[in-house]
Model the fold of this input.
Amino acid sequence: MKLFVNGKEIEVPASAMEKRIVEFLREDLDLTGAKNACDIGACGACTILVNDEPNRICVKLVKNFGGQRILTIEGMAAPDGTLHPLQQAFVDCGAIQCGYCTPGMVLTAHAFLLKNPHPTREQIRQAIFKNLCRCTGYQQIIDAVEQAAPHYQKQAEAQKETAPVTS
Amino acid sequence: MSQPEPKCWRNDAYAKVTGMAKFTDDLKFAKVLHAAPAYSDFVHARIDSIDTSAAEQVPGVIRVLTAKDVPGVNRFGQIVRDYRIFADDKIRYHGDVVAVVVAETREIAIHAAQLVKVNAEPLPAVLDPEAAMLPGSPLVHENHGSNIVNTHVIRRGNVDEGFNQADIVIEEKFQTQTIEHAYMETEAAICVPRSTDGVIEVYGSMQHPFSTRRFVAACLGVALSEIEVIGTPMGGGFGGKDDTAAIVCARTALASKLLGRPVKMVYRRDWSMRESYKRHPYRVHYKLGVTRAGRITAVQCRIVADGGAYCSVTPWVTWRSTVQCCGPYVVENVHCDTFGVYTNNIVAGAMRGFGSPQMNFVIEQVVEMAAAKVGISGIEFRRRNMVRQGSVTITGQKLDGHKVAMEQALDTVLREIDYEKKLASSSRGKTDGDELYGIGVAMSYRGVSLGAEGTDFCAAIINAQADGSIFLETGIHENGQGSESAMMLICAEELGVDLNRIRYRRSSTSNIPDSGTTVASRGTIMGGGAVTLAARELKKKIAAAFCEKLGCVAEEVRFKDNFICGKSATDRIAFADAMRQMWAMQKFPFALGTFKAPRVSWDEHTGQGDAYFTWVYCCQAVELTVNKKSGKVKLLNAVAAHDVGRAINPDMVRGQIYGGMAMSAGYALHEEVKAPGGKMTTLNLNTYRIPRSMDMPEMKVIIIENPDPLSPTGAKAIGEPANEILAPAIANAIFNATGQRHFSLPIKLGAIPEITCCEEGCK
Done:
């Protein structure tokens, strides 16, 4: 079985199939950005994107992800280390305190902005509803997501222009 | 052109936003063993024996540790050494750990831990703190002789005379609940025996590396120099990563010492919830006398704090409650009796606020109730009684060493939220639709840092290198609040150099002197004070080395824009050049700074003294609706104004306030740890409900800056002040919406009854 993690093809050994995928990522691939904070899918700290959809992976097994396209927080920045505009907005807006919820929060917001690049603050609030943060009261996280939205708007415009016209 | 507001700056933001920051559970060591705690199902019982044989027989189990394996001291505590690292004589609460299983894998350790069997004789559980205080109650600690951990008093003036002068007396009983810190990262430790010298390296999630070291060394029976606690990114603390976090490190260190291998113990959320200490539940009987003119004449109060099974910091928490038992009001006659009590409930200890959130919930409602009886507004009542410049507190402390900004904070919030107008449109139980609207306000003052609780000093080391780069280190710990960034900003400003020259050195208990714990909102004032003094010391050395070259006396040397400057614009040396030259002169550009808190005083018999060397002033207000049919509360808007002295990193100050308000909203409306019969049933974040994004409103923060003369940086405190008044503001707003007062937390609302006239006056 294969996984596509942060653009790389990963061959999954048979012995890992029954593992929880959060453990496979953290232990076997050393992608420790996804955190295990509740083990029951209640807090969102383990969130990754599977085919651009947020997934809480602390309760899911590796075998369920065959052939899927996975994005973890380690895959957000450019290969040269330049932060993605959404990550930069988190930094600039003071959206990071202890940082434990940050990877899951950034990925959840990323998936949301891909779908809705023109969000209201209330829509952002709804989008991150499943991700718990104990430090920030969410205010500066919402500021960050709002600040990053123009990047997604431009991206969406660019995609529209290059998309083949279907009639 | 106006300068754009500087962006938030944190030295750890890049690592945290890319997932590169390595928290304890993310660290990897070769040949690491895994440990898991074993609990019993008793709440209070005398232990006959602990049978570890079944656990030991599980393949993959290396060793099962119990109290008999502790070579040093099995008991620890910051005040009283009553907390067992492993339960030995008795089980005192449901979270007592009887053994730790060490195994090749975490799964095996967890499985085997369930096979540890405790043979014990059950004892009657002491669960009600009031009953626990009565003579004849079963004792939690027999050798203590009673269940009363500690008492504090305030005896000021004459309360009988005070109540005689009163025209109106308000008397009410209040109750607050047990709540959990709910840091996103649970307790965790990895301990590694260093092969070169046998030192045990401790990596863990804790906010007090030095007390961790003290307890680990005592448990192992070794010198402090044989343990090195190394700073590791930490997923939140909020006061909660002290005792339990240290004990987790001690058990893990014991395993690694005995087995000679790295050992990792990462707490599962249910272990953390079951075992880790909580915020004290309080019962408060409060009586306040006022004249018809709206002046407070007397306060009598009795405070009972349930400390649970061990002392922890109960005497200190209840001390702050006592000192602040009248809120920011001047009261001539005060009689306060405070009791910290042992029970078989979960241990209570430090949590953000440290005894003030409970009292503010009481006081900030009582003043509004009193105002209504007098027939003036709650705001006017506050103005007539609040502390002002030169006021004397209920402990006899004259507030004259700093700007008393109580009214400034109040006015700022009232203006920003348009309070008076919105108060007039509050529903008070009457609405044509389903949503009742209310606005509420609360304010407080708060003593900064430890006060007369204990020794309060802090160290910082600045070590400039020959190329002009700089190492900075302080005895304050990065809990997630951004302390390292604040220290770096202070250092850069004081030395007149760019931030990118400074590297915050990874903290280690083997390098910097023990500077106490990163609690009590003392990080910025104490650590920042030490950085400032270290920087001034360093500047003195540099000035002495270069003043002659610069053609001036040492006192005239200035540090700015990465230069060391004389009197004229041309007399200057680049900072990096200067450092290289100092090296050549065989002078170390190195300085240790020590900031000692100014003197405080306390008389335990009268409860009088200068309790804290300075104070902060806080006000918050909130608007909300209450659904008439369901009782569901929706927060609409919240405003906060805090005098922080000086804001070092304004966005992080705001972050503290937003986060503190959210935590206080949870305290008011949702959060409650449930333990029927002393057995915890709230064991994860699905049943323990901390605020989610949709529970919070848009918030506005106004930072007030009145630099404090006693603080070398001018900065005071924000972590805890932020977390101590939104709950009473919500309670007042709910009253203004529904016409109902609530005296218990969390506030539980059902359908709101139609009212004809509420006690505090109708619309």
Chain B touches chain A through 56 residues (CB under 8 Å). The first strand of chain B starts at residue 33 and ends at 39.
